[in-house]
TrEMBL record:
Signal sequence extent: 1-20
Source organism (scientific name): Populus euphratica
Protein name per its UniProtKB record: Cysteine proteinase inhibitor 1-like
UniProt domain Cystatin: residue ranges: 33-98
GO function terms (MF aspect): cysteine-type endopeptidase inhibitor activity
Listed PANTHER family: CYSTEINE PROTEINASE INHIBITOR 5 (PTHR47364:SF2)
UniProt keyword terms in alphabetical order: Protease inhibitor, Signal, Thiol protease inhibitor
């Protein structure tokens, strides 16, 4: 009887862990970036601003990274960053989404956030 109870307990624990993992991945798998001052995160933020400057003929500069999320999608790594920039009409915050695949980076989104 104890073996059956133990086996049932382990089975239920396994199912609970499996459901938690599946739920995390189905939610998009976004995780907060722990160190926003990490060299790689800063490079991604500066890339996003430089690409935006090319596309919009603007001259924005990175002031700070306010928030960041990352996730893996196959061989790619996606970043969602909230950036404070200077050089525009006033210091503003923008959301920047960047896709990284090996050495290639692509700016997916760069939009101002409304205060």
């Amino acid at each position: 009887m104890k073996r059956q109870t133990l086996a049932l307990s382990f089975s239920l624990l396994f199912i609970a862990i499996t459901l938690a993992v599946v739920d995390a991945f189905s939610a998009g798998g976004w995780t907060p970036i722990k160190n926003l001052n990490d060299k790689q995160t800063i490079e991604i933020a500066e890339f996003a601003i430089a690409e935006h400057n090319k596309q919009a003929s603007s001259n924005l500069e990175l002031d700070s990274i306010v928030k960041g999320l990352e996730r893996y999608a196959g061989d790619n790594k996606n970043y969602q960053l909230v950036l404070t920039v200077k050089g525009g009409k006033a210091d503003e915050q923008y959301e920047a989404d960047v896709d990284v695949s090996g050495d290639l980076k692509a700016l997916i989104l760069f939009v101002p956030l409304k205060g």
